[in-house]
């Protein structure tokens, strides 16, 4: 989300005649886009701001601004007490940045943290300055109305609102014209996308029809109301990836109730079962929180067994971090000791790593279509990219290029990466046809 927001801000700044600088030292203005989701995200921002304070001392006239979710929460502290920054801009106020910069030029500190009921930045074309030129994010909605008990997002990003479908499709066509090959549609809660009479399944249908050779993913849906027709659409449409990120948060129904996540363990497992049935070979990932208020050892073990049963291909796992203003902060006690939260986190991470290794070993010998994203981090001689199922694959460069679809055969793995042998340059249509023929031939 923050990557996508920074690209909107890039566009606003570039319209003002500014251009990106290579290093902080060369910049006249530095914006730090911030996240409040967990305490350690905020700690990182504070440290970053302190680094820039040192730079501010050296360079007269350097303007430092804070964007995004931390803005509202800490505007007084940031401006008055710490003397760290000149501008504070909340997630719905980016259009005001030029005015705020002008205020700073007049010698004032400038703040706009107003949240909006309508702002979706629909007419702004994000400027992607730091990506790989192959994969891009497109924001389809803002805010969240779900009010999960642990989550600060509804307070920092405001009410849920959907962006007009036409403006989303326009941005996708622009990305196609610029040569992008993979697009992830983003929202805090994508199943509730609703613009006029258009729902999320219809949006995915229209988006993936823009170009059959562009892959589409989305993040994140909520298990409480995942649309079944979308599962069938994913199964039928070769360019809708067979990969779903579906945050469980916990594997115990009582914990889910305390979290205000309106589904039970059984309902979640039922949904996963449907996903696996309708989309053969679907790859699944999740988010898990350990040590939420009052979590017992037994409840924690339920999370372990849920993860064991589903065999997620990837999981983002966190220790619970209490956030001001949330329901959990107001009504519950953050009473699982830090060392217990961490131990439970370590347990689920270790289990998850072995599940991933086991899943990845099954991939050896299989063929996949990999979209090349660039040179591998480890070696210039190798390329890296992802399968349709979102697994990272590394293979010898040979004559292949960034942005190409390459058919590969998996030859080895770790818990996080697949190693492969490239076979030929291909396309979604070609690879899909070959797969279908292989199925018919049995
Ligand atoms: N503490 C720990 N993890 C959290 N998340 C959201 N709020 C918190 C919190 N207070 C996690 C959830 C969510 C992901 C984006 O961040 O798992 O799905
Ligand atoms: Fe936070 Fe829940 Fe909304 Fe996700 S769905 S952003 S966890 S309130």
Helix/strand-derived category reads alpha/beta
Q: Give, in spatial order, the strands making up the sheet with the most strands.
A: 15-16-17-19-18
Q: What does the average pLDDT come to?
A: 95
Oligomer: single chain
- Ligand species: 5'-deoxyadenosine, iron/sulfur cluster
What fraction, in percent, of the residue positions are helical?
Answer: 25-40%
CATH 2nd-level architecture of the largest domain: Alpha-Beta Horseshoe
What's the total number of strands?
19
Tell me the span between the first and last alpha carbons: 43 Å
* Uncertain spans: none
CATH topology of the largest domain: pyruvate-formate lyase- activating enzyme
Major sheet: 5 strands, mixed, barrel
Q: Report the portion of residues in β strands.
A: 15-25%
Task: Describe it.
With 442 residues, the protein is an alpha/beta fold. The protein has 3 domains: 2-112, Rossmann fold; 135-361, tm_1862 like domain (pyruvate-formate lyase- activating enzyme), CATH 3.80.30.20; 367-441, Beta Barrel (OB fold (Dihydrolipoamide Acetyltransferase, E2P)), CATH 2.40.50. The chain is built from 14 helices and 19 strands. The protein has helices spanning 2-15, 39-58, 70-81, 97-105, 153-156, 165-177, 200-209, 228-236, 253-258, 265-278, 297-310, 327-331, 338-363, 428-441; strands spanning 29-34, 63-68, 87-89, 110-112, 135-139, 141-142, 161-162, 182-186, 194-195, 198-199, 215-219, 243-245, 283-290, 314-319, 367-375, 382-387, 392-396, 405-413, 417-426. The strands form 6 sheets. A 5-stranded mixed barrel has the order 15-16-17-19-18. It has a 4-stranded parallel beta sheet with strand order 1-2-3-4, with helices on both faces. It has a 3-stranded parallel beta sheet with strand order 5-8-11. The protein is globular. The mean pLDDT is 95. Bound molecules: 5'-deoxyadenosine (5AD) and iron/sulfur cluster.
């Amino acid at each position: 989300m923050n990557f996508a927001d920074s690209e909107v801000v890039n566009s606003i700044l570039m319209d003002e005649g500014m251009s990106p600088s290579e290093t902080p030292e060369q910049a006249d203005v530095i914006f730090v886009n911030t996240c409040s989701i967990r305490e350690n995200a905020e700690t990182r921002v504070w440290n970053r701001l302190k680094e820039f304070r040192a730079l501010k001392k050296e360079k007269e006239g350097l303007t430092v601004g804070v964007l995004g979710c931390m803005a509202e929460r800490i505007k007084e502290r940031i401006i008055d007490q710490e003397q760290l920054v000149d501008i504070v801009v909340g997630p719905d106020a980016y259009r005001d940045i030029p005015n705020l910069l002008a205020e700073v030029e007049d010698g004032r500190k400038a703040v706009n943290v107003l949240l909006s009921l309508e702002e979706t930045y629909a007419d702004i074309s994000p400027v992607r300055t730091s990506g790989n030129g192959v994969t891009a994010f497109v924001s389809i909605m803002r805010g969240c109305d779900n009010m999960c008990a642990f989550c600060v997002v509804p307070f920092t990003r405001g009410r849920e609102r959907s962006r007009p479908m036409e403006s989303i499709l326009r941005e996708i066509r622009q990305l196609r014209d610029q040569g992008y090959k993979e697009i992830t549609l983003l929202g805090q809660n994508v199943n509730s996308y609703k613009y006029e009479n258009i729902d999320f399944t219809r949006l995915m249908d229209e988006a993936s029809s823009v170009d059959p050779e562009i892959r589409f993913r989305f993040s994140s849906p909520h298990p409480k109301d995942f649309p079944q027709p979308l599962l069938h659409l994913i199964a039928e449409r070769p360019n809708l990836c067979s990969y779903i990120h579906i945050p469980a948060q916990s594997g115990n129904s009582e914990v889910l109730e305390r979290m205000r996540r309106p589904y039970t363990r059984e309902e979640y497992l039922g949904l996963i079962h449907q996903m696996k049935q309708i989309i053969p070979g679907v790859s699944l990932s999740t988010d898990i929180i350990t040590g939420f208020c009052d979590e017992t050892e037994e409840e924690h073990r339920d999370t372990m067994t849920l993860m064991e049963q589903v065999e997620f291909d990837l999981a983002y796992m966190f220790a619970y971090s209490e956030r001001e203003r949330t329901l959990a902060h107001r009504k519950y006690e953050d009473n699982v000791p830090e060392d217990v939260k961490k131990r439970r986190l370590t347990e689920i991470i270790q289990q998850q790593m072995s599940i991933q290794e086991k899943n990845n070993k099954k991939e050896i010998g299989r063929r996949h279509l990999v979209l090349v994203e660039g040179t591998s981090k480890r070696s210039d001689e190798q390329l890296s990219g992802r399968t349709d199922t979102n697994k990272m694959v590394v293979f010898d460069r040979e004559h292949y290029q960034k942005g190409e679809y390459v058919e590969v055969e998996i030859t080895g793995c770790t818990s996080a990466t697949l190693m492969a042998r490239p076979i030929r340059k291909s396309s979604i249509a070609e690879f899909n046809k070959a797969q279908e023929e292989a199925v018919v031939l049995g």
